[in-house]
Amino acid sequence: MNIIKRYRSNIFIPVILCMALCSSCTEGVYFNVTEPAYVTIPNGVKRVGIVNRSIISDSNNVRRSIDNIISEKSPLLDKECSMNCISGLKAALIQSNIFPKVESFDSLHLINSHPNAFPAPLPWTEIEKICSNNKVDVLFSLELFHTDTKVNVVGSAMTLLNAGPDALAGSGTEGTIVKTGWRIYYPQSRSILDEYTLGNNVTSSLMNHKETIRNTSYDMGQTYASRVIPTIVSVWRDFYIRGNRNFKIARRMADAGDWNSAAKIWQNEINNPKRKLCARAYYDLAINQEINGNLDSAIGFAQKSYEIGGRQLALDYLNMLQNRVAGNQILNSQAH
Description:
Double Stranded RNA Binding Domain, 2 domains, Serine Threonine Protein Phosphatase 5, Tetratricopeptide repeat, alpha/beta, single chain, 12 helices, five-stranded mixed beta sheet
């Protein structure tokens, strides 16, 4: 038993040492890149309109009444909160500075005849009329807004009624499912750019229920806006810091933010007769080029590093760069 433990430890220690030595050859660096939005709004779209189509038709009073009873909600709450949802979307689009003009058309009476159901798309003739009359290029439509609320009260009904409204309001919670459905209409090509449902589960006290749903609705509008806004994210890259004295000097330069001086050292090292150091120099040059925004040059250096050194790190990085180029092609086609 002890022999087996000792034998394993004799293997385990060199493995750990090897991993530590390998990991110490590189150091990480963070920098920001812009990723394309999930939904492409064509580059050139400048004027955005927003409409609320989620209001339930008066012609469906029976179904609406049943829905209100089952879900234990105020008949006006969905209407009020759907407008909050529109406000959240509008505020986020304005804050993004992507579109010079963002307007919501509250006076337009577009209806949904089916509670808790995504309606069929609006006719293109109606879309074109709305966009033409209001001079907008694209139309965001809240097609569905629905809340489903269940009340959980602690204590007997008689005790709570005798205690008064304040005791009743503080005696339990309300759980609400908030569901939204969106479409983005682009009349120029008569295409629906996005069709998406977004849900959220909310729990609140009886006293704060309405305010919680109002705030949640606003936040959900902002969340939907993120689907059309390119995102700035931080990415992590490893670069080589060891191999010879020059790599150590280049590392100090990079740590100080002087990547161009570090690149001059790596440029000299690509002529190193040792293949391993040559490959590392090409790899670090690729990192420098990506930081500078030159993805094509970065790909060339990363490919050279892999061809010479055959390291998986270089191949993985090459794939990352190629994915970034593909993402940039999408980004360039988007309004931003």
